[in-house]
Design goal:
36% of the residues lie in helices and 15% in strands. With 271 residues, it is an alpha+beta fold. β7 and β8 form a beta hairpin.
């Protein structure tokens, strides 16, 4: 209630630091969503549904009967930074903290179990993995409440806003080089002809970015097809692999999912 009284929308988290799941009525956004979710509909569900969009400062909701049993199961408290006019730069380890100290303007900091939260006044879109082990949490996101922190909170700097822009056009993180064996006695590889290989990679990118469903499966099948055609001759370079990973990430795949799909495809082909 103290946070809510200061205008910070809060919500409970269950085990694993994740929001409580939607009720049957709201599952898969069947209800149309909360009014602040930027989707059609005006769900009035009294339960703790819709993750960050459930965060509220309304004492009647926070202490009312529908939420009361939930608080008894709560493992942690989260808040919606964007709803409070804030942006959190989530630094997930010591290396990320060191980068922030060398790069970002000083502001209020909050220790976390593995790193720090740097909190600025102002809102922006939320983006994960803008660089290794650095997430931005603001609009349409939530952050765990770990205390008020120390230091004077400052305005959201352009350098943090630029991280989100850079993230959209730069692959993240850089895939590890994949070494594949050359074909013994095959002579010059025909795939090294730039037009042939580039056309194949472009078709693979298009197949991924045009997927409207089953993105995980599409990414894996596409990686498998590329490696089937080009994986044994050693013609794939880091640049080609990064293009494929970037296409997958534009569809919402994480770097870990990309790496797993690539590794599984290699194993399937015995490479």
């Amino acid at each position: 209630m103290g946070l809510a009284g200061r205008g910070v929308p809060v919500l409970p988290l269950r085990a694993g630091k994740v929001p409580f799941g939607n009720c049957a009525t709201c599952r898969d956004n069947a209800c149309g969503g909360r009014p602040n979710m930027k989707v059609p509909g005006s769900c009035r569900c009294p339960l703790v549904c819709h993750a960050w969009a459930a965060a509220t400062t309304d004492p009647a909701v926070l202490t009312g009967r529908p939420w009361a049993p939930v608080w008894e199961q709560t493992q942690a408290v989260a808040y919606h930074p964007g709803g409070a006019g804030l942006t959190v730069v989530d630094l997930d380890n010591a290396q990320a903290v060191e980068w922030a100290r060398e790069t970002l303007p000083v502001t209020r900091t909050v220790p976390t179990p593995r790193g720090e939260h740097w909190i600025y006044r102002g809102t922006m879109r939320s983006v994960n993995a803008v660089r290794p082990d650095v997430d931005i949490k603001s609009s349409m996101s939530y952050a765990r409440w770990l205390g008020p922190g120390t230091g004077t909170m400052t305005g959201l700097p352009d350098i943090v806003r630029a991280l989100a822009v850079k993230e959209r056009i730069t692959p993240r993180p850089r895939p590890h080089p994949v070494v594949v064996p050359a074909r013994a006695g095959a002579g010059d590889c025909p795939h090294r002809v730039p037009a042939y290989l580039d056309r194949g990679i472009a078709m693979a990118e298009q197949r991924i970015t045009q997927a409207t469903s089953a993105v995980h499966a599409t990414v894996y099948r596409t990686f498998l097809a590329v490696l089937s055609a080009h994986g044994r001759c050693g013609c794939l370079t880091d640049t080609h692999i990064m293009r494929l990973f970037t296409a997958a990430q534009t569809k919402g795949e994480s770097a870990r999912h990309c790496t797993d799909a690539w590794t599984n495809a290699l194993a399937r082909l015995g490479l």
